[in-house]
Amino acid sequence: MEAKQLTGSQAVLEAFIAEGVDTIFGYPGGAIMPIYDALYDYNDQLKHILVRHEQGGIHAGQGYARTSGRVGVVFATSGPGATNLVTGLADAMIDSTPLVCITGQVFAHLLGTDAFQETDIINITMPVTKWNYQITDATEIPHILAKAFYLAKSGRPGPVLIDISKNAQLQKFDYEGYTPCNHVRSYRPKPIIRKEYIDAAVALINAAKKPMIIFGQGVILGKAEKEFKKFVEKSGIPAAWTILGLSALPTDHPLNVGMLGMHGNYGPNVLTNECDVLIAVGMRFDDRVTGRLDKYAKQAKIIHLDIDPSEIDKNVKADVGVWGDCKETLPLLTLGLEQKDRTEWVNVFKDYAQKEYDQCIKEEIYPKTEEMTMGEVIRIVNEVSKGEAIMVTDVGQHQMVTCRYAQFNQTRSNVTSGGLGTMGFGLPAAIGAKFGALDRTVVAVIGDGGFQMTLQELGTIMQTGVDVKILILNNQFLGMVRQWQQLFHDKRYSFVDIQSPDYIMLAKSYGIDGAKVEHRDQLAAAVKTMLESKGSYLLEVMVGKENNVFPMVPQGCSVSEIRLK
Amino acid sequence: MSIEEKQEYTITVYTENQVGLLNRIAIIFSRRKINVESLNTSPSEVQGIHRFTIVVEETRDVVNKVVRQIEKQVEVLKAYYNTNDEIVWQELALYKVLSEEITEKVKVERLLREYGARAVAIRKDFIVFETTGHREETNRLMEALAPFGLVEFVRSARVAIIKESAGFHEKLKDFEKREPGEEVIENEYLGKREAVFTM
Question: Most CB contacts within 10 A, which of A462, B71, B160, B178?
Fold first, then answer.
């Protein structure tokens, strides 16, 4: 058979189709024009979402990947287009989000000459990509793209950036079809499971009197929610989550004991320092989870399950490191477990939960104050959504409150910027989250600070008609920083007082309906209106200016020194 | 020796031959503010596979983490780290001195004998000597020549052979398989955790 002639640009799009890509988030520009020209003919097979800024494009790609479990695909041009991706790449790298980003590049003969819109994006993005590669010859495109998709989604997922010079996009070559990649000789997506460690872990768990599970996004990334639930249920061990692990186990599960870390729940934090065996599943002991490391779970034997060998012993030394994909290792552990009655130990968590509810949660979600609290807004969202909505958050107080109080029945329902803490993530990520899960309701909970970082993406909502419910919790402050200034800097409120535009008018100018709530008596109805509206809606809720997030593990303190007030 | 004490480690990395990989490896050190004492890239015993030899002065714990980060890079096949007693290593040094200085004031012959040096270029105006050895050895000739106007001095990076290594030929075969053997993703701590970690 005679090989067909394709341009490099066409080969890129053929690769997407072969990989099952349906949505691309992007922004055109000079050096990526040949690809956009080819896209004109592929419009019926590939949906392109025109964003308003490349950062919005990549965050949308992340949101898409997180809710769909597929690879997010992003286009940007060279130079500023490419550098605008950097924050999203760093975010995706630290939160292990699979992305393939294609950037245009100047003609190969101009590389290194400071050509118009030339930037060395390969070197700039090296620390924030799982892999990156520059293509200057179109014949490389099919196998490099195959490798890119394979690397992005296999093992511990991550962002991949492919930089394609304009001449390669234009170049015609003999196209011999697309072969997906499933092996790169220098790359091992997952380590081999060693039976010795499975046995050692099982023995520790079976002998444990007060074991505790802490789980992260590894459960979701490994698509191991069922295996994890079986493991939890058979073992009867209480399980607490990191904010990226949230929704892997339904929030109302009797063994789900809540959130870990700086603004996590009281019980799981205190009892981390009382348990005898700590079983960490697909999480990486971030400092926001562990607090002070030299006072972290020193009394416990630690079992650490992770697909990435470099995570084991990185922050917390494991007594048993179970290397491997948790979809495979969890069933092996479950198999060896003895069923035990752990009611007494589970009740210890319940006691702490009750104490936390009485001293902290109750006044947050059913406040007696005149001012509205963020917690009560999220409680009302729960009441209307019944735990079925996808919650996308930005970064700050509203994020912690949403993660603490939102209810989730299904996995892949919590989308947030965890490791990098990227303000401005929420709105674009929510757009992507909706494209990744079109049959679900997506609520973007965003603070007044973060919203103003990427509000240009309202334009994307307008143009695509995507249905995103935007819930702005406006406390007229950069609230998290203000809280720290209040607690640790003698209330010296240095540049945290932030003004907002009229969000309702702003939304209206983009054709988006909205309402502003300033009094509690309107709140429930307004939340209901938002969630039941056809199409996008923006609800701004004026919450207490100095509403703090508690409990809190102050920085430099041990998790057991968590403060309820 | 405690794992917390800093000492010289030689890291050997087997990699694919790809543009930019040097930078990917270098930033793993620079990100942690670790100074690279010496770095050499060369072919290895296996055709098409490159071999990096990197020397750092760090604690075992840090080196262990860094090596895992290196191994995590897509184009890296395998990385090892060794203390000085586990390797055989050499460095090469070149010295340029003015001929008139050295022929008048010292006997070239004596230098060659005492320091095991070779003259690699002898010209009317200058002579270039070469020695190989450990750093202390190459330093000694530098010091000896200093009073006679050492015009140029340069020393290469360390190259090292791991005493216990059986080479990479067999390992590579394992890598090329889709279902690799245990060697490829070996758990270096299997059965010797206690010896490695002090909690």
Answer: B160
Residue B196 has pLDDT above 60, yes or no: no
pLDDT at B101: 82
Tell me whether A313 touches chain B (CB under 8 Å): yes
Annotated domain spans of chain B: 7-87+160-184, 89-155
The mean pLDDT value of chain B amounts to 86
The active-site residue out of A54, A311, A356, A364 is A54
Whether B180 sits inside 8 A of A188 (CB atoms) is: yes
If you classify domain B89-155 with CATH, what class do you get? alpha beta
My answer on whether omega of the bond before A551 falls inside 30° of 0, hence cis, is yes
**pLDDT tens digits along B128-150:** 999 999 999 999 999 988 888 89
Strands, DSSP E only, in A106-200? 131-135, 159-165, 172-175
* CA gap B109, B174 in Å, rounded: 52
Q: Is there a contact between B20 and A123 if contact means CB atoms under 8 Å apart?
A: yes
pLDDT for the residue numbered A364:
97
**Confidence (pTM):** 0.94
Q: What is the set of domains in chain A, with CATH numbers?
A: 4-175 (3.40.50.970), 195-349 (3.40.50.1220), 366-542 (3.40.50.970)
pLDDT at A313 over 80: yes
Return d(Cα A252, Cα A257) in angstroms, integer.
Answer: 9
Instruction: Let me know if A117 is a catalytic residue.
Output: yes
Residue tagged active-site, from A130, A166, A229, A469: A166
Whether residue A185 and residue B190 make contact (CB cut-off 8 A), yes or no, is no
Q: Which of A475, A492, A495, A476 is nearest to A484 (CA)?
A: A492
Q: Which residues of A touch B20 (CB under 8 A)?
A: 122-123, 126, 132
- In 3D space, the residue among A300, A324, A339 whose CA is nearest the CA of residue A202 turns out to be A339
A184–B contact, CB cutoff 8 A: yes
Check if the beta carbon of residue A239 is closer than 8 Å to that of residue A255. yes
- pLDDT at residue A304 tops 90: yes
pLDDT exceeds cutoff 90 at A258: yes
Using a CB-CB cut-off of 8 Å, the residues of chain B touching A185 are 16, 77, 175-176
Catalytic residue flag (residue A542): no
Closest-CA distance, A179 to chain B, in angstroms, reads 16
List the single residue in A with minimal CA-CA distance to B174.
A185
Q: pLDDT value at position A331?
A: 97
Query: Do B76 and A191 lie within an 8 Å CB cutoff?
Result: no
- Helix, coil or strand: residue A444: strand
Q: Quote the crossing angle between the two packed helices A195-207 and A326-336, to the nearest 10°.
A: 50
Decide whether B7-87+160-184 matches B89-155 in CATH topology: yes
CATH number, span B7-87+160-184:
3.30.70.260
